[in-house]
Amino acid sequence: MDNGKRQLLKAITMVALATGASTSASAQEVTLRLHQFLPPQATIPSKVIAPWIQKVEAESKGRIKIQMYSAMQLGGTPPQLFDQARDGVADITWTVLGYTPGRFVKSEVIELPFMTGLSSEASSQAFWEYVQANAADEFRDVKLLAVHTHGPGLFHTKAPIKGLESLKGMKIRGGSRIVNSMLTKLGATPVGMPVPGVSEALSKGVLDGTTLPWEVTPAVKVTELVKNHTSFTGSHGLYVTGFAFQMNKRAYDKLPDDLKQVIDNNSGLSLAAAFGRGMDGGDIAAKAIAEKAGNSIVQLDAAETDRWRQASLAVETDWVNEVKAKGVDGAALVKQMRSLMAKHSK
Hints:
The protein is α/β, with parallel strands linked by helices and 346 residues long. The protein has helices at 3-26, 43-59, 81-87, 120-134, 177-186, 198-203, 222-225, 249-253, 257-265, 269-292, 302-324, 330-344; strands at residues 30-35, 64-69, 92-96, 143-149, 154-157, 171-174, 189-192, 209-212, 228-232, 242-247, 296-300. The radius of gyration is 24 Å and the shape is globular.
């Protein structure tokens, strides 16, 4: 065989190998493990995450398969979920940012009292935009798929709350250090714990009540364990908590480009909005359960709500001063978060 034919054969072989490799890469299949802390029937796992999984699997034509492990089935505790995604213990996780106090400093702004409106869909979109502009570095160790909030948090207590004075001495569960700070300013005794611990703590008398949005109350039997629910008048909720949905960077980077695109197409602002809509729908359904049970549902009037607002102002002042000491312009972040909330609440 002369040299020219050898070169031609070599070129054909290389093309064939490259084509085969390309075909193999494009046909690559992957199974991802998703870990989250609530029972599978809870609102977010069933109404948001499960449909998201189905959509991703369908758009990848079955080449991405996602197995959801609920209620910490893969081990660990809810505060460890973010690091489980970072470290590859799981490929994707969903968790509450406030479960790791002081870690997501700039993202905490969403939790300040009376910061957000009454729509989780609106506040979740505002929160996503805020994080992209101001706090993306806090998520640099993962592939961030979405951030979001729940709907307005309220009080669920064994004894009725008739005014600010009713809280004095009550042991109330808070889900983050900011919420616990607010509870202290309002006169309660805060008890920090993740959501899964609430049922047992209420039944054993460790708690006199809990702060939670309506949405999660059925999953932890709150409306069975307490009979009083107290919310507030006006266009702003008492507080919300920030959540994050993230993917292990290495798991994402190993995907071929077309599968990365599937993940990207199902991430970001639209996914934040979907989480928010799920929360809003869950609030309506859960409140109806409490109404059917005959529980007392009270909305404090405008004057009393303003008393709570004034009592909680110090939480924002404290936060601004605290982050300033870390080189963060908290006042500017508060202003921007409020601006984004107004934009998305129109």
